[in-house]
Amino acid sequence: MVPFRELPWGQQSPPPWGMPGATLRGFALRASMPTLQTWCDDTLNGVSSDSFVPAFPVVFLYLVHYPKLVASGHEELGFSTQNEFFLMMPVLRLFAPFVPLELGWAFPFIGVDNGTSAISGQMVVGLAKTLGEIDINEAGDGSYAANVSMLALTTFSPDTQQMVQPLLAIAANDPDPSATAIAGGFPGSVLHIAEIKQELSSEAIDLTDLPLTPASALASGCFALRQIRDCGAPAEAALADIVRMHWRSENERDFRFWGDVAVDVFDNATFPITDALGLIGGVPLPIGGLRYSPIASWGVTADLCLSARVLD
Predict the structure, then answer these.
(1) Would you say 306 and 15 are in contact if contact means Cβ atoms under 8 Å apart?
(2) For 21-45, what is each residue's pLDDT tens digit?
(3) DSSP H/E element including 152
(4) Model pTM score
(5) How many other C-beta atoms lie within 10 A of the C-beta of residue 239?
């Protein structure tokens, strides 16, 4: 390999990345297994020797505020901050058609309000981040609201201009003051929420019940397709591989749950969230879009670190 040439004006921040004090707000939505399988086939499968299948029919919408983002080992250079949204789906990584290696996660949709994060996420670890606007409001009474707008095309046509378009609106009320800690850290801790445990497949249960393995190490891997278009042959990829990211989550605190939550999804041509994931149970809104009632809604603050490597 050719050594990477660090440029002071470059936007490819090197991992691992530290994210102390990240506030995560998660919302679980039912989805279609066949549709999730189609996403795996179109995005992850056929690139490495491993294959991927959806683990159970739920996707997880997260809104995250990172008060500090830093390239670990390069703290002297400074830090950045951002808000982020992503839709995360559980996947089984298979060695052979019926031999699951691990339970992990993939990110069909993800966006940020920080340009360096968007470029680093896509170029370094394959997270196809879109740039946009994310407004988050945490009220003193425990209620929560967020609005996400991303650069998008409303339709595909010669007359359509890419603009920042509304994509998501979340309103969470009725916080539970008796919320207790969830076992393990992000992202695997969601598997211990009662409403989510009911959705787990037998394969997922087996992979979350491994002896001598700490809860924080279970289901901590995330997978992404990293690809670079060949400028001389635009239909070909000059680089295509699967990146396995690993989350380390520590010092989890400030747990909370909400009982009255609405998640509004406003699909467009760039972000066909409902159809791409097969979301179930959406109710049409008068203003357009679909409203979903999550099967579980929760929040936590944690100190995160993300490392990565390429799968063989």
Answers:
(1) yes
(2) 999 999 999 999 999 999 999 999 9
(3) strand 144-152
(4) 0.94
(5) 11
